[in-house]
Amino acid sequence: MGLPDASDSRLEDLTRWVSDDLGFAGSEIAPASADASFRRYFRVTRGEDTYIVMDAPPEKENLQPFLSVDRLLLGIGLNVPVVLAKDTTRGFLLLSDLGRQQYLDELGVEGTADRLYGDALTALCSMQTADSATMARDLPRYDRALLMREMELTPEWFLGRHLGLTISAAERSMLDRLFEALAQCALTQPAVFVHRDYHSRNLLVTATGNPGILDFQDAVWGPVTYDLVSLLKDCYIAWPASQVRRWALQYRKQLLSKGFSLAADEAEFMRWFDLVGLQRHIKVLGIFARLYYRDGKAQYLKDLPRVLQYTREAAENYPEAAPFADFIAKRIDPEFLRAQGRALA
Fold first, then answer.
1. What's 141's DSSP letter?
2. How far apart are alpha carbons 245 and 242 in whole angstroms?
């Protein structure tokens, strides 16, 4: 096993754990991926076999939600990593390796989108309709406090820190009304398992049991359209609105075919979808800005234009969000390109 950077004490500990405690001496260890949290992932190669090691610093990341949700999803037959060994005190997990092929890498190949999204929607339907009593008992609630806390990231990190805007009392009041309306829309929807980051970077193309599903440790019990909009209004790839609508309504039919109690007609379902998407994308504007200014992760800034476009389109289409659409046009758009230029220079 190659020597890690001497300054990376956690990687040194992880390397000793893999080599000494797990008996994988002589294996190769290399970075596999990182995400928007403090977790890191390494791929261990031992002969022809590969494994993934998660590094989750205990003072910053709690492994228990990952372990709990992993058991739930394995229990309903979904393709998630199997935990092969763990050291929860030090924050290390040895996981089965689901592969390297992200959905994001394959969706651009002509003719693949319908098949890949079809598989992802089928898996989502299983998550949202199987063993709901257990999931409702074991998962945290996506309650008003959490919904509001997420949206508040944008006034602080996107509007204030990234754009340099000072918000007037009237503008703050407008945001308060919008945030309350979006939270209430989410809370009135039927509640289901919510992965919370069900998108093309957390789904892997696999030969069997497609897709492989990652990064589910923040799962909650919440609105039925949340994961659907995460998938179809993806922060990393965009599709024509007509295509998004077709897939979304296809999913509504899937839910109904499974006997899911869904009183909403197509128009109401799409309203739920769009407004929960607006809540999510308002949150993401703040998260992506925070990842840059607080955590030094500049790569997310290049996805801000797409997220802002989703936000703009949803706000323009619903009367309860019309004042926010006006705010985007008058206050955000004039500053956005300048802010991007400053940050990415």
1. B
2. 5
Domains contained in the chain, CATH given: 9-96 (3.30.200.20), 103-344 (3.90.1200.10)
Contact in structure between 234 and 200 (CB atoms under 8 Å)? yes
Please name which of 341, 100, 102, 104 lies closest in space to residue 238, comparing C-alpha atoms.
104
- The Cα–Cα gap between 157 and 168 comes to 16
For residue 174 the two structure tokens come to 């407008």
User: pLDDT tens digits for 273-317?
Assistant: 999 999 999 999 999 999 999 999 999 999 999 999 999 999 999
17 token code pair: 């754990």
CB 77 within 8 A of CB 85: no
What does pTM read for this prediction?
Answer: 0.94
- 3-state SS assignment for residue 85: strand
Cα–Cα distances in Å, from 48 out to 28, 45, 99, 262?
11, 7, 13, 48
For the chain, the residue count is: 345
